[in-house]
Amino acid sequence: MDTFGFLVHPEDTADVAKKFPSLQNWSPAVLERLMRFGPPIFCGHSAGIRSDHNEVEGVFVATTLTARQMLELPLQTVLRKIIRAGRRAERAGAKILGLGAFTSVVGDAGITIAKNLRIPVTTGNSLTVATAIQATRQAAVLMDIEPSRAHLAVIGATGSIGAICARMLAPHVGKLTLVARDEAKLEQLASYIMSESGKTVNVSTDPRHTVRKAELVVTVTGSADTVLYPEDLRPGSVVCDVARPRDVAKTVALQRPDVLVIEGGLVEVPGEYESKFRFGLPKGVVFACMAETMILALEKRYECFTLGRNIRVEQVRQIDELARKHGFKLAGFRSFGKQLTPEMIREIRKVSAPTGSKKGKAVKAKRS
Asked: Is residue 313, in this structure, part of any structural domain at all?
């Protein structure tokens, strides 16, 4: 049976202390120093990934760096750690390697990592995009939002996931605002989307201000810090948080019962998926980036499917078709770690202020 590998890492030092109780009394500074020089950790296997066409198993390997360390340490230090973890997965028999969380973000988004391994590598971002788009459009319908008249804000728009989400959703919404830090890159992306879709596009470097006017939000910044807070969100809006760690503050769950926040990129696995490494998700549910790795292994398509910053529309559509072929599907809706029932969504819709989804006057790309 063929095997895929998947790389993970702790979100923070508290995550490490939770998994290793003997380290709970160590200070974060000491833990981070220990983790910086620690070897990769073999975390275990997964099994029962079975479609009508094939069956595969997986191995999980952790690199001992937190999200913040991956952003702040010298790039070469981080890449060496990730490559070392990838080689551990190779030795465990993996024929393809998926990059989880921040291991797919650092540097050139997997290209250098792939060049230093003997097996192909994928970030999984193509399926992440496909599921985020599907989830956002479905959630809009459930909240009585007509996408064709709604204002969509994409936070982290110049990143690989944000850019392709914006491109693929642009034809289906009434108004689009791209948000990121680099204004020059925003203007360039806005011009491209306008030429591609015929839609006019706004740009902004202020996410908190922008989302106050948006009925639909897709956020995927790659930041280690919270980006959106309870007071930022428009009543009755849908927010698809694709980021890991999450962009939306956990306090939104308590303070904003009138907003539907969903976790993007969650997929049900066909067969009888079993793994002790569950990432806090329900049984049989995985992140889309991992699901893409599984699908490529099931398809015996051992190639670097999604690498780098530029994801093609054709890639997204192709992996979406392969997901359907092998029986992978969107795993309903989850919000802040909890499954959302239809009754819960109806209650959110009920308590939200009636904002409507009026199509705003289109303006040319500018700061907003």
From this structure: yes
